[in-house]
Amino acid sequence: MSEPATVDTPLKKLVGDKTAKALATHLDLHTAGDLVYHFPRRYDERGEHTDIRSLDVGEQVTVLAQVQRTAVRPMRQRRGNLLEVTVGDGSGGVLTLTFFGNQAWRERELRPGRWGLFAGKVTEFRGKRQLNGPEYVLLGEGGDGEAAVSDEIEEFAGALIPVYPAAAALPTWVIARCVRVVLDTFTPPDDPLPADVRASRKLVGLGTALKEIHRPSSKEALHRARRRLKWDEAFAVQLTLVQRKHRAADWPARPRPARPGGLLEAFDARLPYELTEGQRDVGVEIAEDLAAPHPMHRLLQGEVGSGKTVVALRAMLQVVDAGGQAALLAPTEVLAAQHHRGMLDLLGPLGRAGELGSAEHATRVELVTGSLGAAARRRALGEVASGAAGIVLGTHALLYEGVDFADLGLVVVDEQHRFGVEQRDALRAKADQPPHVLVMTATPIPRTVAMTVYGDLEVSTLSQLPRGRSPIASHVVPAAEKPAYLDRAWRRLREEVNAGHQAYVVCPRIGDGPTSDEEPPPEDDNGRRPPLAVTEVAPLLAEGPLHGLRIGVLHGRLPADEKDAVMRSFAAGDLDVLVATTVIEVGVDVPNATVMIVLDADRFGVSQLHQLRGRVGRGAAAGLCLLVSEAAEGSSARERLDAVASTSDGFKLAELDLEQRREGDVLGATQSGHRSHLRLLSLRRDTELIRDARAEAITLIEDDPELTRNPALAASVAALVDEDRAEYLEKG
């Protein structure tokens, strides 16, 4: 009898060197545990057929289908015959399988009526979808004494047929065979979930769940197995977040209470407009946090233009009033410089300490970026180190590069999705005690995402727009179907410029030269043309539909001083049109810009489009956003654009975004090459389960903060939420 396999047993001991090497190379599976946690993507059921009509060209698929007919014809370009096999799913959808060369045995094998699993890449030829030379396995016996196809058929004897995430070199049935070999000798680890949690939540044991998810004895057993394994994922995430929140509550922090008669009161008195009710309510929450003896750790979310910056500035002034300093970290130098100009304008004499005309108890606002000249940098760093600069603005370079604070009390992070462990450690090193932290985002976050990804932060939401903000109308421009609509879009832009306004034209790519992180690959797998590029589009517009207008170019590869100069020119009205990448997506504020044309809009995500269009309509005049796309009507890309055009409700769009994106994009399922076993949890579908897991996590951590009485559970959490995954969660 073979030796029992554990989660750590190398696969080469169980499935042989050749197969183990293929599993490692193509799917990053190395141990029995890796394979057992490589769950089926779906289950096909005989009698319930795959919808072939829903397959996309370019997709790597495995379909359950029935052979309808075969045909052999001579090849035109070379000697030999071509075998064409038509398979269907019973609902009207058909695929053509093509096999080149003289393969008479395949014609005998692939007889009409036979059911099989067929795996390959969907292509299209003369309007017909096909699989060229697909891998396949036939199910059941073919009649006339024909034997079942290989011992692999045993894996599909049940009613539910597992279909695994596969690779071209490893079709799903090969993976299924390997899983069967491993499960035959696999000894699952002791169940780490506390027995009282298992009982109260009616969860099956871990060993049963791992067996049933691969070889379900019934639909009910499969449902129970998936529920238990989803629970493990949700519980591990929530334990990690609740534990971090619990630890943060124990950190000491210097309270920064509001001071009567200070800068904050003077600032409120000189504001030219009234704060919204939401701004006032969130301001009270933040003020109370800042006055507490442990660090604030709060997420402030709100639509573009909802007034987050003013809320943050008021918090910074409260800290300055209490004798501390506040730093705002922006993702780009362009945005840091704009914040600097904007805050100086808002503060007026209150932000110009030491200058003529400054207020009596003013502070200084310093900008620290990598592009500062040596003399200016030395002066700025001196102001920061002495404490004369109460408010300091910059990029993440603030955290490193020899920037020393006299008394850092608050860090505001603007639009930053990668603010993590290293940065927090760097911050703590710059303060005697951990500073208060406020993270801001203009991307509305569905409640489940906030609970799962930002679960260690208190969440505040600004849902109102300040009075005076104009509505933004959005329309899809179907460039392929109706080219005249695109011509009309350019004329519409000229009309706005002629009326004294300005415009953005946004492209998904910079252009020739080394690529940056913000650029998609130049060509996708289906051979679509490269996305339109700023450096190519700008001259075409200047010579064509926008001839005679003052056009500027802005993208991430420009030197920092050049980027800043372009933005200053646009803000000053010296440019009519700014052709840019998504570098303008965050925080760029030019109230006179009223129209935005997004080219290849289907290449952008839902939230990204929503955030981009928030750059227009920021003044008294209404905004217009035109989403130009060649996506066909009825396609998923076109439906996504239609949804963006139909609503300005960022939370509805965030739910749509979550529905259409892979969960792993949100959950950070794979980080820095490390394996993570977060496979099944769906933020959209498993809201209730996530909520229940959080409640259990809070109860458990209150009783056993470091899980010292639950060592097996602590080890399980560490395996599911590894170091990089924990860092991703902390980065939010």
From TrEMBL:
<keyword id="KW-0234">DNA repair</keyword>
<dbReference type="InterPro" id="IPR012340">
    <property type="entry name" value="NA-bd_OB-fold"/>
</dbReference>
<keyword id="KW-0547">Nucleotide-binding</keyword>
<dbReference type="Pfam" id="PF19833">
    <property type="entry name" value="RecG_dom3_C"/>
</dbReference>
<protein>
    <recommendedName>
        <fullName>Probable DNA 3'-5' helicase RecG</fullName>
    </recommendedName>
</protein>
<feature type="domain" description="Helicase C-terminal">
    <location>
        <begin position="485"/>
        <end position="659"/>
    </location>
</feature>
<dbReference type="InterPro" id="IPR047112">
    <property type="entry name" value="RecG/Mfd"/>
</dbReference>
<keyword id="KW-0227">DNA damage</keyword>
<dbReference type="InterPro" id="IPR014001">
    <property type="entry name" value="Helicase_ATP-bd"/>
</dbReference>
<dbReference type="InterPro" id="IPR011545">
    <property type="entry name" value="DEAD/DEAH_box_helicase_dom"/>
</dbReference>
<keyword id="KW-0378">Hydrolase</keyword>
<dbReference type="GO" id="GO:0003678">
    <property type="term" value="F:DNA helicase activity"/>
</dbReference>
<dbReference type="GO" id="GO:0005524">
    <property type="term" value="F:ATP binding"/>
</dbReference>
<dbReference type="GO" id="GO:0003677">
    <property type="term" value="F:DNA binding"/>
</dbReference>
<dbReference type="Pfam" id="PF00271">
    <property type="entry name" value="Helicase_C"/>
</dbReference>
<dbReference type="Pfam" id="PF00270">
    <property type="entry name" value="DEAD"/>
</dbReference>
<feature type="domain" description="Helicase ATP-binding">
    <location>
        <begin position="289"/>
        <end position="462"/>
    </location>
</feature>
<dbReference type="GO" id="GO:0016787">
    <property type="term" value="F:hydrolase activity"/>
</dbReference>
<dbReference type="InterPro" id="IPR027417">
    <property type="entry name" value="P-loop_NTPase"/>
</dbReference>
<dbReference type="Pfam" id="PF17191">
    <property type="entry name" value="RecG_wedge"/>
</dbReference>
<keyword id="KW-0067">ATP-binding</keyword>
<dbReference type="GO" id="GO:0006281">
    <property type="term" value="P:DNA repair"/>
</dbReference>
<keyword id="KW-0238">DNA-binding</keyword>
<keyword id="KW-0347">Helicase</keyword>
<feature type="compositionally biased region" description="Acidic residues">
    <location>
        <begin position="515"/>
        <end position="524"/>
    </location>
</feature>
<dbReference type="InterPro" id="IPR045562">
    <property type="entry name" value="RecG_dom3_C"/>
</dbReference>
<dbReference type="InterPro" id="IPR033454">
    <property type="entry name" value="RecG_wedge"/>
</dbReference>
<feature type="region of interest" description="Disordered">
    <location>
        <begin position="507"/>
        <end position="531"/>
    </location>
</feature>
<dbReference type="InterPro" id="IPR001650">
    <property type="entry name" value="Helicase_C-like"/>
</dbReference>
